[in-house]
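tool_call: predict_structure(chain=1)
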Amino acid sequence: MPVHKYRSIEDMPELWVAQGDPAIGRRMRRLWRMASAFAGPLGIPRGVQKFHSLDEMAEDRHRYEEERIARIAARNARKQ
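tool_result:
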């Protein structure tokens, strides 16, 4: 991917879509698809997590990380 340098913002190509332009929806869908492809389903629990000790918190984080690694490995195995 090439890198372009510009002396001012006026030299840059127009990146924004005008309000009401039908291309907005298409661009937004493309952006969301690209973002979800990079991030994938995170599976982060919602809300505030409370723990009785630091050890309990560490165990929960370790469990979450192991589950996330397993999900990513399963997704990558399906792609191959």
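agent: The helical segments are 23-39, 54-79. Proceeding to next step.
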